[in-house]
Specification:
Elements (H helix, E strand, L loop, with lengths): L1 H8 L5 E10 L3 H12 L5 E4 L4 E3 L4 H5 L9 E3 L9 E3 L3 E5 L4 E4 L3 E10 L4 E2 L16 E2 L7 H10 L3 E7 L9 H15 L6 E7 L8 H13 L3 E3 L2 E7 L4 E6 L4 H5 L7 E5 L2 E3 L4 E2 L2 H4 L28 E3 L12 H19 L12 E8 L2 E8 L3 E2 L13 H19 L5
Parallel strand pairs: 1-2, 1-8, 2-5, 8-19, 10-17, 11-12, 11-17, 12-13
Antiparallel strand pairs: 3-4, 6-7, 7-8, 9-18, 14-15, 15-16, 20-21, 21-22
The protein binds flavin-adenine dinucleotide (FAD).
Flavin-adenine dinucleotide binds next to helix 2, helix 3 and helix 9.
Length: about 425
Amino acid sequence: MIAREEAKMSITVKSRLHHRILIIGGGTAGLTVAAQLHRRGEPDVAVLEPSPNHYYQPAWTLVGAGVYSAAATARPQEPLIPTGVKWIQDYAEAIDPESQSVATRNGLEIGYDFLVVAAGIQLDWHKIEGLEETLGKNGVSSNYRFDLAPKTWEFLRGFKGGVALFTAPSTPIKCGGAPQKIMYLAADYARRRGIAKETQVIFGSAGTTIFGVPEVKAVLDKVVQRYNITTRFHHELVAVDPRRKEATFEFTPNHPLVKSNPSASRPRVVIPFDFLHVVPPQSAPDFIKQSPLADPSTPLGWVQVDKHTLQHTRYANVFSLGDASSAPTSKTGAAIRKQAPVLVENLLQVMRGQDPQARYDGYTSCPLVTAYGKMFLAEFLYDNVWHPTLPVINTQKERYDMWLLKKHGLPLMYWNLMLKGRV
Ligand SMILES: Cc1cc2nc3c(=O)[nH]c(=O)nc-3n(C[C@H](O)[C@H](O)[C@H](O)COP(=O)(O)OP(=O)(O)OC[C@H]3O[C@@H](n4cnc5c(N)ncnc54)[C@H](O)[C@@H]3O)c2cc1C
């Protein structure tokens, strides 16, 4: 509460605007919704987005593995904003749903009739001691940043054997499969270079299992076995010592030892590494956490929406989708492809004074790259219900045609159809 008041007070309003529909964030979700609203004839839509570039993040996995150029994942934002939709290049700093306005870093106050929050997810690097200062150095990298994904490849290429350590945090993250995709590619790379015997691949994950969907786990268990990967579940990365090349993990509350003695302090283990790929803990952007839109049941601060209609649970003129929303599905672009038409339909109904009728079923998918030239498509709904949608093709298998889909088909679909509001 105090933080919210402070955030409001520190902003000096220099000018005021008003839009019928304001979208915060022009990433995957924001631009897809803007394009669909534009196609449905909405005349007054504005996108509040600070970045001059737009990124196709799913390809960062391939950048980290040396088979995709980083430059090809970035495009200038301006031509991607649908003609007729206004781009306000600024940061949202505070949302006041009572007065229906958003304050920006540069002193704008933007009033709205309807708001769509699509500001993505915040990477909380600072929560891991010693990490920020060593990212991109000392064999420590992460595919979760545009500038670091090429570093992953640089370190992998220079890897001469030893311990290759991959981590996954306990918070929800974007693309739950990404921490392990790069691990499988690295293991395959070591095999192809003939250094598999001198390489120990370790997965230090705060999760309880390799994947929550039983049908996916069955395939991935075999992949883990094939590469002889050591899994350390219930392990949360808490510190990195770049000088000693050591990663410190703390047992999570779910670890059997912690469960059996919850009052004792949580054990820590140190794992030395030669190469380290980190996936940081993640949460909603701070300005959302500090706003009345945040879900009060979690400190992670997601925009609290009905998981089927994507309408805010307390403010009927507010909607949210994508990584920032509380919808309890795996946060992916694939999920947004299914969320966007539901949100747009419901928003238009609410604008006409009707109740929202369209429903999102939690669909998400994760293209799990398991080797150079192999991918396996995991598709599922809310509650981890396996839900393959491709006709004829058996997607519960690692396949070369699915690899081609990941490398060529999905980026084409993204830039040419999804961001244009066509799928
Ligand atoms: C390594 C990696 C691999 C992935 N692999 C896949 C995959 O294979 N398949 C898949 O479907 N998905 C994958 N994803 C996930 C996918 O990229 C995201 O789920 C998707 O981009 C989320 O869209 P979004 O619009 O919610 O957030 P984003 O696309 O991140 O957009 C959020 C936007 O909000 C803007 N913003 C932030 N703060 C503010 C502010 N204060 N004011 C205004 N705007 C703001 C940002 O600049 C950004 O443009 C992957 C992600 C990563 C990092």
